[in-house]
Specification:
mainly alpha, about 0% strand, globular
């Protein structure tokens, strides 16, 4: 996949800063066409193609297109297998986990993530990239287990990810991108994990210790605010949830217009329509066309 657009997408993916959604949506058809041809051009081409399929799957998830996300993730998995790169395989497994869990196939998602982590940690001295990918796979698995109300498994996987993050922090870091697996990333996942487990006190404690500015991309900061807003609504703090919605728009405006976040905004408006500034926010993010 030799085009400069594909290379730029891959560089941004490796730095932890995915391309802006609007721009990615415009160039995605060209990238997907190139990815189809690239998978046959050796391991490097297959790895680059897998990265494009992963991004396509993630974008489909943001738009609520679960079936499409699953199809893209399956292609990412095929390309990742051809690449032979365990880090790429882990990225594909994480992409596949979301549509799998949304369609009731939690066991399959957990198995894929377990296999990815096994590949990454099979050597006695895994690299920093291996550790980071393994820790992120563990966080995704913990969230998947929490959505299925598997409390012990979710807590164990989250703890494993935190241990890996602590281990990774001792490695020298010279890469041209911020680290994705950090204590703050683990705290972000803990918000959603414990909310799904019904432990709102622990979820909100994780939100309080999180430093959003330390997260590697605006989309991650928006995700932190989204998960915190959901936990605050469950805890009965609708005004606090609206404050988090404003943070979503500040961090990444397009994230505030995702179907799931628009539904969250509409729910806040039903609960507390009198909140100052809420009408304008609803007009900008729910009523206004995408």
């Amino acid at each position: 996949m030799g085009g400069p657009g594909a290379a730029a997408v891959d560089r941004r993916r490796r730095r932890g800063t995915p391309p802006a959604r609007g721009r990615l949506g415009r160039v995605l058809p060209l990238l997907l066409d190139a990815a189809e041809r690239s998978t046959e051009r050796g391991p490097a081409g297959a790895a680059l193609a897998a990265g494009v399929w992963v991004l396509a799957s993630q974008l489909a998830v943001k738009h609520g297109r679960t079936d499409t996300a699953g199809a893209y993730a399956a292609r990412a998995g095929t390309a990742a297998t051809r690449s032979g790169d365990p880090v790429v395989l882990a990225a594909a497994a994480r992409a596949a986990a979301t549509p799998l869990r949304r369609t009731g196939r939690t066991d399959q998602a957990l198995l894929l993530l377990h296999q990815a982590r096994t590949h990454l940690t099979a050597t006695p001295r895994p690299t920093a990239a291996d550790l980071e990918a393994a820790g992120m796979a563990a966080l995704t698995a913990a969230y998947t287990a929490a959505q299925a109300h598997r409390t012990a498994l979710a807590r164990d996987l989250a703890a494993q990810a935190e241990q890996t993050a602590a281990r990774l922090a001792r490695h020298p870091h010279t890469a041209d991108r911020p680290r994705e697996l950090t204590a703050d990333q683990c705290a972000l996942y803990r918000i959603g994990i414990h909310r799904h487990l019904g432990d709102l006190d622990t979820a909100l404690a994780a939100a309080r210790r999180l430093h959003p500015a330390h997260l590697p991309a605006p989309e991650r900061r928006a995700r932190a605010a989204t998960d915190t807003a959901r936990a605050l609504i469950d805890a009965g703090d609708t005004a606090g949830a609206f404050t988090q919605l404003l943070l979503i728009e500040h961090a990444a405006p397009l994230e505030a217009r995702r179907p799931a976040v628009r539904a969250l905004t509409a729910h806040v408006a039903r609960l507390r329509p009198e909140l100052p500034g809420l009408d304008g926010y609803v007009r900008r993010t729910v009523v206004s066309p995408l």
